[in-house]
Amino acid sequence: MRIIVGTGPAGPGVYLIEGEQAWNLTALDNAVGHDLMGLIAGAADAAALAARKDGVAACDAAAITPALPVTKPGKIICLGLNYVDHIKEGGYDVPTYPALFMRSTTSMIPAGAPMVRPSCSEQLDYEAELMVIIGKGGRHISEADALDHVFGYTLFNDGSVREYQRKTHQWTPGKNFDGTGPIGPVVVTPDELPDGAEGLKIESRVGSEILQSATTSDMLWSVARTISTISEYTTLEPGDYLAMGTPPGVGHAKKPQRWLRPGEIVEVEIEGIGICANPIVAEEDVSATEAAE
Q1: Which of 78, 112, 157, 227 is close enough to 146 for a disulfide, judged by CB 3.0 to 4.6 Å?
Q2: What pLDDT, in 10s, does the model give residues 129-162?
Q3: Extended strands (E) in 114-217
Q4: Is 113 in a helix, a strand, or coil?
Q5: Of 192, 260, 239, 247, which is closest to residue 217 (Cα–Cα)?
Q6: CA dihedral 188, 193, 197, 203 (to 10 degrees)
Q7: Euclidean distance between CA atoms 269 and 182, whole angstroms
Q8: Residues forming a β-bridge with 34
Q9: Contact 212/247 with Cβ under 8 angstroms?
Q10: 3-state secondary structure 29-93
């Protein structure tokens, strides 16, 4: 099943996507709500609603303005070093335990929304990533059972302000600037993809310029292993986001370095899932627009 949360001709809601068409499942059953949590919690049966989709008018999927798949996730946990060639280009040693950090909700934006280059630094970088949305929570989850805890997979661009990321050994500032973490728009349920979303081509680009290109099979920690490892120290909850790290080709490692610039549109694409595209805007332009309104 392919799903987009957002606002379309049929209003806000959770839309079932088939080909170029979309159906508002929220219009069929209010229990679905306006993000994925209704389906994740089982308040509504997605498969049963899909069978009844003709009860509402179809619309053009491209006409939907995306929203965040889960509006208020309990946790956003990210892997910093999960592709060997990316680890090497950053000058790090290959870790024996995943490099984990957290992102804030104010850093997250939906696909299509402006990605903000902050006024204090021009070093806004891109990172194409697979994002996992937890469906069933738990603690001490075995690797063998871990994929049963996945609701779906989507796209993530882990926008990083490198100047601030490298100010200290802790990456928190550079990974949490407001409006730098696009996610979505399409969420794909596990039955539509290979187990653990392995073997999928992953790319980032600006126009015809390919910035990163790899496969999710190159990840050091698979989705199952990541879920199991994280659940050793924290209880995973329904609706949590897990970002699976980025392949090589990031801007800070290029010669010359390649930062995202206002006016560009950056895309992240993963085979079988879709494209997350966001325009780059300067923070000072956003502030000026807000002041004029």
Answers
A1: 227
A2: 999 999 999 999 999 999 999 999 999 999 999 9
A3: 115-117, 124-125, 128-134, 150-157, 160-161, 181-183, 186-188, 201-206, 209-215
A4: coil
A5: 247
A6: -70
A7: 12
A8: none
A9: yes
A10: CHHHCCCCHHHHCCCCCHHHHHHCHHHCCCEEHHHCEECCCCCCCCCEEEECCCEHHHHHHCCCC
